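Problem 12. The chain below contains 188 residues. Write out its predicted structure in token notation.
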Amino acid sequence: MLRSFTIAEGVLLVVLGALALLSPVIASFAVAILVGVAFLVGGIVGWINNLTRRRQLQPWLVVARLVVSTLFLLAGASMLHSFAGGGLPVLAQVAALSLAIGVVFLVEGLVAVVTAVSHRQISGWIWGLLNGLATLVLGVLILTMQPLALLPVLGILVGVSFVFSGVDLIVFGSRLHPSIDVSSLRQS
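Solution.
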């Protein structure tokens, strides 16, 4: 049962990812509201997490992480406000969201790189560095795009993510959840 469900989820994500990649502008609009909500919630959770852990972290790191959480909050609130107000054309809203994501990726990438480098004594710090560098590069790429080129950004990001997540679920789901031998169940 677990195997079938995991593989079915993987197939669904691959299909949704492929649809997003086939129609990235439509997917960008469809996901824009969800991203706004996710950024808003992520910012709130980030603030709570950073404030509750402030005694375990260095003060500069708390401030840096609060800056990132604040950016998530502001970006989410701004996105939701622009969709609710309807003052801008829908395409301009999606492009603005893409730019907001570019800014967030840029700052988040910088913070992740500095955090990883400052924690070199911890095993696996290199993954944090690679994540930060990749996020930083994505932020720079998005921020240097022409306005019309920004329209499919969200759809492409979501499409690629869904396809990779789906393939991951299909491959690992089929290996982690071995199939059940029905004949052995009948004998017991």
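Discussion. The chain has one domain: 16-178. Students who got a different answer should revisit the alignment rule from Section 12.3.
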